[in-house]
């Protein structure tokens, strides 16, 4: 008989959901220095653009994967986003962080692809180990952590694309509300409201399972 999933959705986890899905980053975090590499890449230095790609490829792929829930499509969109960034480098305003610009390109490509779909596939999400504590634990505690991760992944899969996007950017990629606003093209206050609603939806998705284990 399979052991019941208890710890993944207990009352404490629901009350501490923001902590369970990632540590927050300060709003005044310093931007990474893109300007030198951008200027060199514009002059035709291939190594400079390669450096830019290395600095953004992981968050670009991560965002695409969260929105599309498909490894293959996420990889394809990530490549297309980086290609478009290269082709439009002359249009990039280097007063804006380079990673936010490329993430905005990625987001638009993902939304275009989702609009073209006749139905949304539900392929397995990438394991979300980034959003759960990674401290050394006993074997029993390790099993609890796995149950928590599975519960969180299952709940995330049921959310809308918009909800997954704002949660992934804020908690997984550690973006500030100001940065997310730039990526999504809206006001920081709107992002804060979306975060609140998305967290509440996630709590409600996990609450029925918590009731079953009492």
Automatic annotation (TrEMBL):
<dbReference type="InterPro" id="IPR039425">
    <property type="entry name" value="RNA_pol_sigma-70-like"/>
</dbReference>
<keyword id="KW-0804">Transcription</keyword>
<dbReference type="GO" id="GO:0016987">
    <property type="term" value="F:sigma factor activity"/>
</dbReference>
<dbReference type="InterPro" id="IPR036388">
    <property type="entry name" value="WH-like_DNA-bd_sf"/>
</dbReference>
<feature type="domain" description="RNA polymerase sigma factor 70 region 4 type 2">
    <location>
        <begin position="150"/>
        <end position="202"/>
    </location>
</feature>
<keyword id="KW-0731">Sigma factor</keyword>
<keyword id="KW-0238">DNA-binding</keyword>
<dbReference type="InterPro" id="IPR013325">
    <property type="entry name" value="RNA_pol_sigma_r2"/>
</dbReference>
<keyword id="KW-0805">Transcription regulation</keyword>
<dbReference type="InterPro" id="IPR007627">
    <property type="entry name" value="RNA_pol_sigma70_r2"/>
</dbReference>
<dbReference type="GO" id="GO:0006352">
    <property type="term" value="P:DNA-templated transcription initiation"/>
</dbReference>
<dbReference type="GO" id="GO:0003677">
    <property type="term" value="F:DNA binding"/>
</dbReference>
<protein>
    <submittedName>
        <fullName>Sigma-70 family RNA polymerase sigma factor</fullName>
    </submittedName>
</protein>
<comment type="similarity">
    <text>Belongs to the sigma-70 factor family. ECF subfamily.</text>
</comment>
<dbReference type="InterPro" id="IPR013249">
    <property type="entry name" value="RNA_pol_sigma70_r4_t2"/>
</dbReference>
<dbReference type="Pfam" id="PF04542">
    <property type="entry name" value="Sigma70_r2"/>
</dbReference>
<feature type="domain" description="RNA polymerase sigma-70 region 2">
    <location>
        <begin position="52"/>
        <end position="119"/>
    </location>
</feature>
<dbReference type="InterPro" id="IPR014284">
    <property type="entry name" value="RNA_pol_sigma-70_dom"/>
</dbReference>
<dbReference type="Pfam" id="PF08281">
    <property type="entry name" value="Sigma70_r4_2"/>
</dbReference>
<dbReference type="InterPro" id="IPR013324">
    <property type="entry name" value="RNA_pol_sigma_r3/r4-like"/>
</dbReference>
